[in-house]
Amino acid sequence: VQLQASGGGFVQAGDSLRLSCEYSIDNYVIGWFRQALGKEREFVGGVNWNSSITKYSDSVKGRFTISRVNAQRTVFLHMDNLKPEDTAVYYCAARIGLVGPGHYLYWGQGTLVTVSS
Predict the structure, then answer these.
(1) Comparing C-alpha atoms, which of 29, 30, 54, 31 is closest to residue 42?
(2) DSSP-assigned letter for residue 35
(3) How many helices (H) does the chain have, and how many strands (E)?
(4) Which strands sit side by side in the sheet containing 17-23, from one edge to the other?
(5) pLDDT of residue 45
(6) Taking a C-beta distance cutoff of 8 angstroms, is the pair 66, 75 a contact?
(7) Rounded distance, CA 11 to CA 31, Å?
(8) pLDDT tens readout for residues 27-74
(9) Does the pLDDT of residue 1 top 90, yes or no?
(10) Where are the beta strands (DSSP E) in the chain?
(11) How far, in Å, CA of 5 to CA of 23, rounded?
C-alpha cells in the first residue's frame, strides 16, 4: 500500500495551492492531515470512496476543497486564501470506515507548505 503526497511549496498569504495524493489502494477513505512545527498533527479534511462525503476541520472550512478522481487514483486538496497559520507538512492517509479524524491505517510521506505573510 502506497500513498504519496505532492504539490507543496512556498506561497504568499492569500494565494492558492493544490496538493495531490496518489494512492495504490481502492475503496478507502482518504484523509488529509497537517503538522506544524512544534504542534500536534491535526485532521484537515477527508473524502470517502465515491466522493459522496467530504468533511473539513473548522480551521479550513470554506477555504479548502477536497476532490477525488478514482480513475487516476488521486485525491486533491485545493487550498484557497492561504494564511501563514496554514504552514505545515501535509500528509495524506487511508483507512476503511468513516470520513473524519482518528486512526488511519496507511500514511504517505508529507509535503511542505509554507505560507509567507
Answers:
(1) 31
(2) E
(3) 0, 11
(4) 3-6, 17-23, 74-79, 64-69
(5) 98
(6) yes
(7) 23
(8) 999 999 999 999 999 999 999 999 999 999 999 999 999 999 999 999
(9) no
(10) 3-6, 10-12, 17-23, 29-35, 42-47, 54-56, 64-69, 74-79, 88-95, 106-107, 111-116
(11) 9
| Residues 6 or more apart whose Cβ sits within 8 Å of residue 40 | none
Could you give the CA distance from residue 104 to residue 82 in angstroms, rounded to a whole number? 26
Residue 52: which residues within 8 A CB-CB, separation 6 or more? none
- The answer to whether the CB of 95 falls within 8 A of the CB of 105 is yes
The grid coordinates of residue 101 equal 479524524
Mapping DSSP to helix (H, G, I), strand (E, B) and coil, where does residue 95 land? strand
- pLDDT, residue 25, reads 87
pLDDT 10s digits, 81-116: 999 999 999 999 999 999 999 999 999 999 999 999
